[in-house]
Amino acid sequence: MFQVVPIDVLGSHSLVNLNVALSLNNGLRVEVYGTNVGDTLYAAGTIGSSSAFWGPPRQYGVRLGYNY
What we know:
Largest sheet: 3 strands, antiparallel
Shape: elongated
Strand order of the largest sheet: 1-2-5
Distance between the termini: 53 Å
Helix content: under 10%
Structural class: mainly beta
Number of helices: 0
């Protein structure tokens, strides 16, 4: 239980992440992904009581893999 009211409380936020993967019979795997698709600006944490550091912006990419 808190003795005092906390001053470093982060606001809530929602993020949308997407991931689509395709595995082929020859062992090849292709994956397309996107994180923070809505490009939401949000505080990921605080430094002291007056500064915040921000979460990463929209990111996307492709991953390739091979299973043998």
